[in-house]
């Protein structure tokens, strides 16, 4: 379980509030996880525990999941697409 000390803080990194940064955040987190799994090669138990925690986190709050690639396009940045995590009445809805 030593390898989990490098994976669990990833779950605590918040998603940026600015929609323009969502795509870069998603790419950074994806590359970090990919490079971690390729370089450190965590044990099977650690990988399963982390992926289970990640899937539960994304399932419970899909709009705040950092793997949300559906709302990272230019349409979300311009405010023309409504993402599942968006709340009605925000500044992007008033424009």
UniProtKB/TrEMBL annotation:
This is Bladder cancer associated protein. It comes from Eptatretus burgeri (Inshore hagfish). GO terms for cellular component: membrane. The chain crosses the membrane at residues 20-38, 45-62. Keywords: Membrane, Transmembrane, Transmembrane helix. Belongs to the BLCAP family. Pfam families: BC10. The keyword Thylakoid does not apply. InterPro entries: BCALP (IPR009598). It is found in: Membrane. It comes from the Eukaryota. Acts as a tumor suppressor; induces growth arrest at G(1)/S checkpoint and apoptosis via RB1-dependent and p53/TP53- and NF-kappa-B-independent mechanisms. Modulates expression of genes involved in the regulation of proliferation, cell cycle and apoptosis. The lineage of its organism: Eukaryota, Metazoa, Chordata, Craniata, Vertebrata.
